[in-house]
């Protein structure tokens, strides 16, 4: 997403995480995970680190604000999404019974912070896509599919009644032309989740 925003040409290589390639193990021997950005033969790992590297390396639309305070806040909210928001939302999908009720309350609480932060803005930092919007991509495109195919949270966590600003953000973000070009098709994501569900069921037998 960041490379596309900057207008940088790149080669995208998909990775089979069940059968990790020699290149992935070579260039990310510590975490052995994606994403991994390889630039001039040098690896950069971890999503938020990669985003800042891209912003500092290539010209084009800024991913982080120029003001030091705004940059700090952008980093804070991106980290909040990564470390607090997504784990809470995932638990709301996967938990059951009394645990699910508690998980739903926690997820609603953290998502409300995002709702309030938008304050009616189209995007998290005004009218241009930046670090926080890209970090929130999981909410914008992935989570609805995750929620549907794991089929745990009822009713859906994010609705227009509860989170109107966030829902408007989802529409604005996912309908930007360059975003639409690069988001994986929903049917492909749905199949990915279905494969994981079937694999988990098979492992449990």
UniProtKB/TrEMBL annotation:
Please give the superkingdom of this protein's source: Eukaryota
Looking at the record, the residues that make up the GST N-terminal domain are 1-62
Q: What is the main EC category here?
A: transferase
Please indicate if the UniProt record lists Lipoprotein as a keyword: no
Signal peptide segment? none
Question: GST C-terminal domain: from which residue to which, for each copy?
Answer: 67-192
Keyword field contains Transferase: yes
CDD domains per the record? GST_C_Tau, GST_N_Tau
- Report the catalytic activity: RX + glutathione = an S-substituted glutathione + a halide anion + H(+)
Q: What is its EC number?
A: 2.5.1.18
Q: What are the entry keywords?
A: Transferase
**InterPro entries in the record, alphabetically?**
Glutathione-S-Trfase_C-like, Glutathione-S-Trfase_C_sf, Glutathione_S-Trfase, Glutathione_S-Trfase_N, GST_C, GST_C_Tau, Omega/Tau-like, Thioredoxin-like_sf
What PANTHER family does UniProt report for this protein, alphabetically?
A: GLUTATHIONE S-TRANSFERASE U8, GLUTATHIONE S-TRANSFERASE, GST, SUPERFAMILY, GST DOMAIN CONTAINING
Q: What does the similarity note say? A: Belongs to the GST superfamily.
Protein name, UniProt field: glutathione transferase
Q: Which organism is this protein's natural source?
A: Penstemon davidsonii
Cite the source lineage.
Eukaryota, Viridiplantae, Streptophyta, Embryophyta, Tracheophyta
């Amino acid at each position: 997403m960041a490379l596309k925003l900057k207008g940088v040409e790149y080669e995208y290589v998909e990775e089979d995480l069940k059968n990790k390639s020699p290149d992935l193990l070579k260039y990310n021997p510590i975490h052995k995970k994606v994403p991994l950005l390889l630039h001039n033969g040098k690896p950069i790992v971890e999503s938020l680190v990669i985003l800042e590297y891209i912003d500092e390396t290539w010209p084009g639309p800024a991913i982080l604000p120029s003001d030091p305070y705004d940059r700090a806040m952008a980093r804070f909210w991106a980290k909040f999404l990564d470390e607090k928001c997504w784990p809470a939302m995932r638990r709301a999908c996967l938990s059951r019974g009394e645990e699910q009720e508690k998980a739903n309350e926690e997820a609603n609480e953290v998502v409300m912070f995002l709702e309030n932060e938008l304050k009616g803005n189209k995007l998290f930092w005004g009218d241009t896509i930046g670090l926080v919007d890209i970090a929130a991509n999981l909410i914008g495109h992935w989570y609805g599919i995750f929620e549907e195919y794991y089929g745990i949270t009822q009713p859906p966590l994010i609705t227009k009644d509860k989170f109107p600003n966030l829902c408007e953000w989802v529409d604005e973000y996912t309908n930007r032309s360059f975003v639409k070009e690069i988001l994986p098709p929903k049917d492909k994501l749905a199949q990915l989740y279905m494969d994981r569900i079937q694999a988990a069921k098979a492992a449990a037998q």
